[in-house]
Amino acid sequence: MSDKKIALFGWHPDVVNYEKWPGMSAEKLRAMLEGDRDKLVALGYAVTLHYIRDGETAYDAATEALQGQPYDCVLIGAGVRRDDDHFLVFEKLVNAVHKAAPQATICFNTNPSDTADAIKRWT
Question: Contact, 74 vs 97, CB < 8 A?
Fold first, then answer.
């Protein structure tokens, strides 16, 4: 069991353009993200899932979510990182983590089902 505190950042399932992600829906994404969180909790991590809603507020929302919280690791989801239309949102999140949680390692998943593997690499 771990006592590590983890923050997961990804798009809120209600704001994703699912035309870019064939076969995915808000319900499927929500279930996958919550499943990732539950798997990490079962492994002993203290996990907080943070949803971002738009690029304009991503930096401030992430900074606010991280301030005052001693997170050990922060994951930025593949939906942000792998979508070229959201490159600047990804950059904002990385910089928010760097500024608001400099003690935390940063990791990335490749899809909503390998989050635990990404977290375990860095904790």
Answer: yes
Nearest residue to 93 (alpha-carbon basis) of 63, 50, 49: 63
Q: What CATH number is associated with residue 13?
A: 3.40.50
pLDDT tens per residue across span 49-103: 999 999 999 999 999 999 988 999 999 999 899 888 999 999 999 999 999 999 9
Amino acid letter, 78: A
Contact predicate 64/70, CB 8 Å: no
Instruction: From residue 31, give the alpha-carbon distance in Å to each of 15, 93, 116.
Output: 15, 23, 15
Q: Please count the structural domains in the chain.
A: 1
Contact 8, 72 (CB under 8 A): no
Contact status, residue 44 vs residue 3, Cβ threshold 8 Å: yes
Task: Measure the CA dihedral 80/84/88/92, to 10°.
Answer: 20
Cα dihedral sign, 34-101-103-108: positive
Residues of the domain holding 67? 5-122
> Which residues partner with 6 through β-bridges?
47, 73
